[in-house]
Design goal:
The protein is α/β, with parallel strands linked by helices. It has 8 helices and 5 strands. It has helices at residues 2-8, 24-29, 43-50, 56-71, 87-105, 114-122, 142-145, 168-181, and strands spanning 14-17, 35-38, 108-110, 155-159, 186-190. It has a 3-stranded parallel beta sheet, with helices on one face. Strands 4-5 form a two-stranded parallel ribbon. The protein is globular and about 60 Å long. The chain starts with a helix and ends with a strand.
């Protein structure tokens, strides 16, 4: 469908995420269209941040191998991997290959923060001239704006995905400490 519509009325640019390289099929069908790769969190980072294996040191070692594996991205040999047989790590390594290759094909890589800009350059070898910092903006919905005013009390708010990589577990650990000091504090979590 995408290629047919592009043939009828060409698109100027295609934007897609690095996560799972979701736009890769469209790019293969229409290789002449400029691709803006909007970064969020590469698969292996999401897995590293959201899941914990029982042996923490083993996970650190495995993730170090994944990073080393990434740095040699396009010149690596599939058969020379020294990594965990854990399915999650195998999946992360597979997706890392696909996502880094997709990023290499992008006209512009647009991470939302400086850390991901640095990652795109150092781990995926994306030239700095093709990386553009593009912070995520937030426009609140009408429902959000209609929430009760909290001018006379302490309210701690969280808006985002309720997952480890967004720091929700740190907030959860802090709640009892905040309530010890400010017993009437309220917490609003929206995710």
């Amino acid at each position: 469908v995408f290629a047919a519509r592009h043939a009828e009325n060409p698109f100027d640019v295609l934007e897609g995420p690095e996560y799972n390289a979701d736009a890769r099929i469209a790019v293969e069908l229409v290789p002449d269209i400029p691709l803006v790769l909007k970064m969020h969190t590469p698969s292996f980072m999401a897995i590293k941040l959201n899941f914990t294996l029982r042996k923490r040191d083993r996970l650190k070692h495995i993730m170090k191998q994944v990073r080393q594996f990434t740095r040699s991205s396009l010149t690596r040999q599939q058969g020379n991997q020294d990594s965990s047989d854990h399915p999650l790590i195998q999946y992360a390594m597979k997706m890392e290959l696909i996502e880094s290759d997709h990023a290499q094909r992008a006209t512009i890589v647009a991470p939302p923060c400086q850390d991901l800009c640095d990652f795109a350059h150092s781990a995926w070898n994306i030239p700095l001239k093709r990386i553009r910092l593009a912070p995520h903006t937030y426009v609140p919905s009408e429902e959000f704006l209609e929430l009760e005013s909290t001018a006379n009390r302490t309210v701690v708010g969280f808006v985002g995905r309720l997952e480890k990589r967004k720091g929700i577990e740190i907030l959860a650990e802090a709640i009892p400490k905040v309530l010890n000091r400010i017993p009437d504090a309220r917490f609003r979590l929206i995710g």
